[in-house]
Prior knowledge:
Blueprint: H1 9-12, H2 14-26, H3 30-36, E1 71-77, H4 85-94, E2 100-103, H5 105-110, H6 112-120, E3 124-127, H7 141-159, E4 166-167, H8 176-184, E5 188-189, E6 194-195, H9 204-214, E7 220-224, H10 231-246, E8 250-252
Amino acid sequence: MARHRENGWRGKWAAAVLGVSALAAVTSLWTAQADTLSGPAPHPSPSTTHAAHPKKVATGIAHASDKGPRGVNITVDDGPDPTWTPQVLAVLKQYGVKATFCMVGSQAQAYPDLVKQVVADGHRLCDHTISHDTAMDHKSEAYQAQEILDAERMITKASGGVHPQYYRAPGGAFTPYSRRLAASHGMRPLGWNVDTKDFEHPGVAAIVSTVKSELPNGPTILFHDAGGDRAETLAALREVLPWLKQQGHTFGFPVR
Length: 256
């Protein structure tokens, strides 16, 4: 799994992070839980989640598809976004593809109807932290816990009670601690094999070429539905999805 850093994210999420700052004070109790990992952190209430105590999963970073050797996993990061997420959902529906949406907690909190639509369309949810800090692997365990567990709570609440099944560290900034913490909350750490770099706006042809050339590396493909103009992503998906089907691939979800 290649590690990437998405330039400008701290600035892009600054307003969202400020909006969450008050929440940080209220949720400081996560720190004690983070230090012990003695069990799952408390959730708002059983009525707001399908799994108040989700089953623990493996701590290893997942790449494989649950559809086997010919399976591929489409993953979509950084949303939901009111402009681009509905369009990505429409393209996925057009081709009958289910994907995994790695959501930033502050975005999920801001656009709960989109989170619910993702779930209603049969896609899966993934925790992508609250502020998309690609340097969080250099921060304290208490900080990592707050980023992961606050996002988990925000996404679950926004979805109407559907718990994220995966955790993807921004920029691949995993740590042994963050993987154990996520897994203890039922969220399998999720990597990628094909980084389309669509966030760099390389052009549709370049995105499509990257998928075709890097797919032998493994089945999990990374796209984005937020953080900037995603017109190239949409156009690339319209080429990539039918091409994958023509190559005999089936679409699945990452293993858990």
